[in-house]
Amino acid sequence: MAEEGVKLYGFWLSPFSRRVELALKIKGVEYEYIEEDLQNKSPELLQYNPIHKKVPVLIHNGKVIVESQVILEYIDETWKENPIMPQDPYERAIARFWAKFIDEKFFPSFRKAILGGETEVEKVIEETKENLKILEKVLEGKNFFGGERIGFVDIVANTIAYWVFLFQEAAEKEILTEEFPILCNWKDKYINHNIIKETLPPKDKSVSFFRARFAQSKASS
Amino acid sequence: MAEEGVKLYGFWLSPFSRRVELALKIKGVEYEYIEEDLQNKSPELLQYNPIHKKVPVLIHNGKVIVESQVILEYIDETWKENPIMPQDPYERAIARFWAKFIDEKFFPSFRKAILGGETEVEKVIEETKENLKILEKVLEGKNFFGGERIGFVDIVANTIAYWVFLFQEAAEKEILTEEFPILCNWKDKYINHNIIKETLPPKDKSVSFFRARFAQSKASS
To answer: Is the Cα dihedral A85, A87, A91, A92 positive or negative?
Structure first.
């Protein structure tokens, strides 16, 4: 059995599940991974997360924690070695701010820019690029958002380092390009990072999955 | 000058500003309050929060913190007396979960139920009531979400205890009623709580404000 009864319900292509796996790996916490079929959710998933019915779900000694950013903070507060959050309250506030920015502002606008129809798409692309410029400024002069090493914001930013490129390839549309050299440089370090590499889903299979998904949603819209 | 150079940029009717004021009062931190004119934002607000251009903005010894939930955690970590977050990591995760639920799930659906047109409004009202039922269960057997005293979730839930009722009166529509006795009981304790009372905007002025706002948005839709 995994250390201290740690179980993770996830989905191979979910960046949110992968964040939790990455945090557990950084901490060196062993865990049992249970792959969910999102088309046919298990009774356990529905029981553990009745409100959102989503992965990831972390179980630790019988306690249930959901929502990826909430889980990341729980992991950091429970296993103290290799902290992913800064130690200073102000730095911690800044990390929470950027994580929120990535999930609530950057990614929804990127998604719309990639998947949106013709209406207003130019405006959304412009907005997405503005957001990328903002993130470039945050990264300027640093190896990672966390400074010298991977931190909370980097873990949350797996959507930018990897899923953005999967979406772009599947949709045959480019927004995050060499036009943003700091982000591209960070992305290269990110996807080649020893521990992170293990948590990224296989590229070809992922692109095929999204390509099919995008074609489907186009057909039904 | 206020203790340790604490300044808050807010708007009298913003529940998000009021959350920060409540937390500062619970902690006994003196602060200078600057009222913003949201129709004509000050250069300071735009400089301090260039990304969202919103209140509240907290300045502490020259450091700028934005986003109400992020500010609340910063305050709790900076001034340790009268903690608003639980001490146990799991309890803290649960508090973050419910705060997120209130801001991202409950309130947007309530708003739509109150302000939405005819289309699908019944469905949204149903969903809002489901969310209220869920929150009733969380409160069952407790004085506050925080247990015996006001905590993080209660502070965030000011939208439910007060703004919900302002919206309902302004729109002449009721969703949160005696049908939810536990929430109503909590609301009564909440709005009559010594410290909280000071942070709630005057009722008649607030209702008039929202009534005018709702009429305007109806006219322009």
So the answer is: positive
Fold category of A89-219 in CATH: Glutathione S-transferase Yfyf (Class Pi); Chain A, domain 2 (1.20.1050)
Per the CB < 8 Å rule, is B93 touching A74?
A: yes
Tokens of B75: 């305050």
Each residue's pLDDT tens digit in chain B (221 positions)? 444 599 999 999 999 999 999 999 999 999 999 999 999 999 999 999 999 999 999 999 999 999 999 999 999 999 999 999 999 999 999 999 999 999 999 999 999 999 887 778 899 999 999 999 999 999 999 999 999 999 999 999 999 999 999 999 999 999 999 999 999 999 999 999 999 999 999 999 999 999 999 998 877 76
SS3 B63: strand
The residue whose two tokens read 């599940």 is A17
Q: Is B62 on the interface with A (CB under 8 A)?
A: no
Give me the residue from A60, A73, A92 closest to B96, CB to CB. A73
Within an 8 Å CB–CB cutoff, is residue B12 touching chain A?
Answer: no
Contacts of B134 in chain A (CB under 8 A): 51
> Domain B89-220 class?
mainly alpha
* Domain limits, CATH 1.20.1050.10, in chain A: 89-219
Residue of chain B with shortest Cα separation from A96 = B70
Residues of chain A with CATH 3.40.30.10: 3-78
Å from A74 to nearest chain B CA? 6
Nearest to A15 by CA among A54, A48, A73: A54
Q: What is the CATH code for B3-78?
A: 3.40.30.10
